[in-house]
Amino acid sequence: MRKLLLFSVMCTGLAVPMTGHAKGAETQRTVYFSAFDAKGTAVTDLTAADLAVKENGKDRAIASVVAATEPILVSILVDDGGSGGFQAPVAQFLDAMAGHAQFAIRAFNPQPTRVADFTADTGALQKALTAIGQRGLVNTAGDQMQDAIAEAAKELQKRKAPRAAIVVLTAGGEKALSTQAESTLTDLKNSGASLHVVHLAGIELGQVLGDGPKRSGGTVQQITGGVVPGPVLAKIADALLKQYVLTYTLPDGVKPNDRLSLTTSRKGITLLAPSRIPDSK
Known about the structure:
Radius of gyration: 19 Å
Shape: globular
CATH architecture of the largest domain: 3-Layer(aba) Sandwich
Largest sheet: 7 strands, antiparallel
CATH superfamily of the largest domain: von Willebrand factor, type A domain
Oligomer: single chain
């Protein structure tokens, strides 16, 4: 798949938490997270003894911590102003995730337009890469970004994806003040997807692009000059491919809460974990 996707470009131009099952008198909940050291290298040897979980401010018992192996659903939103500047890095990201994920891709033209539904098919992804090439000047409005994230989140929730991510590459940003922001953040939380944002320096980041990654266990990275360096999307791929799945328990009679805190006693390690998780039904 790597050669095919990169050849096409040359020619044309999270934590996903969810409520688990009851175990005896206890309720199990599951959350996905990843960890990096001070050099930005993924840490893959954490154990339950290295971690502490609080839900709604209360300590919770960790049942297990293992490497995540479930396939990932990734929704990619490309807001490049029609320049085609994100085409090559998206191709590299698809290559890095090949064999581990299915992808849906939307391009802002100016409305978010689906160019690929969730698929791992090489031919379909090649066509999607062509569709996010240079297209002429495209002017977008900030509200379109929030609409696109909300739509992607609802789609992932409907599919009940155990592991999911939304990756936004934007040269336009979002409207700074919007009454829709909290609704979109709620959709993001309920989907269980991590939100990863790559944005052009100097643009407006509103509440969704600014707070969404922290709430969902994602990342925010800034670029300059409209060119996405390889390490930027490589870090997102690394964060997704080297996730852990952590299961913890609630005592009998305790209602699940959407506020989560995951910390580690290991020095110099940063955790990418959600601070908001889906409400229990």
